[in-house]
Every structure is written in structure tokens, then in C-alpha cells.
Predict the structure.
Amino acid sequence: MASGSGSSKTDFRRKWDKDEYENLAQKRLTEERDRERRDGKVAPPVKRDLLRHRDYKVDLESKLGKTIVITKTTPQAEMGGYYCNVCDCVVKDSINFLDHINGKKHQRNLGMSMRVERSSLDQVKKRFEVNKKKMEEKQKEYDFEERMKELREEEEKAKAYKKEKLKERKRRAEEDVDFEEDDEMAAVMGFSGFGSSKKSH
């Protein structure tokens, strides 16, 4: 184990025989494996499913803007943050929660590996057809009446904007007339060039 022979008297460090300890570790491992084989407790390798598409919507907004009182006795699922019932952990913000549910640990707890099923050509063609049908349905849903209503609203907004501009122009014109009348009055009273940048008529 620790060999003190052959070392100088000033060297007080213990010297360990690494080869001896490595042999002991290997011996212990082989004994454990033999014992497991004898008892029949050899665990078969775990076959995990391929990664599947999530069939539920991740709820990130249900607790948004709500106030919760947290005490020492509050269960972990009701504490602040996002609770993962698969891994029994709380994540503090939405970005980390999404990282967690897409991560390796969470997927393993669900019984899935991180490997994705390889798609065949037929599956890709079917997916394209489904997406094409969805796009066509969206275009059909866009109703003519709805479009006309939007156009009317835009026209009303444009008319209101024009009216507002006209009112503003009239107000400015009235203000200019008032200034001109004040200039004429000042000229009659003898203050024609006083404090104004406009030329007198």
C-alpha cells in the first residue's frame, strides 16, 4: 500500500503504489459483475423511443401577471416559476423552461432518446400536400365582405385625416389674418417696425 522504503529521511510524503490499487479496483469490478451474473440481476439495455413531436401546447402564459404568496410550506409545483412534473423541478423563466423540456434529461425521463426518425420520401410528400391544403384553406377563409369592411375603415380613416388637416390649415390661416390686422394697427399707431420681422405694407 504505502511504501516508505527507499525514500530519503527528509521526504515525509507517503508513496502510493498505483499499479497495486488499479489491480484492486479491477478485481472488485470483476467480482461485482460475477455476483450480478450469479444472482441474475443483469439489467438489460434500455431501448428508448425515437424523438416524437409534442402533441400538446406548452403553457407559458397562464401565470403571467399574477401575484402568488409563497411560504415555506408551499408545494414545489405552486412556487414561482415553471414546474416540470416529469422531472419534478422548478425553472425560473420561460426561456430556460423551453430549454429544459427540449433537453436530454427531460426527454430521457419521458422515455425518448434524442434520435429522430428518418423520414422517407413518401412521408415528406404527404407533409407537403398537407401544408399546401392548409395554405389553400387559409386563402379561402379570407372573406370578401371582410376585405370590403377593411377598405371602408381605411377610407374613413383617410377622410378623418384629411378633415383634420383642413381644420389645421384654416386655423393657421385665421392666425395669419389676426397677425396682419395687428401689424396694420401697429402701423397706424406708429409702431410699424417694432418687434416684427415682417415688412410693413
Q: What stands out?
A: The chain is about 50% helix and 10% strand. Helices lie at 18-39, 94-101, 104-109, 121-141, 144-189. The mean pLDDT is 81.
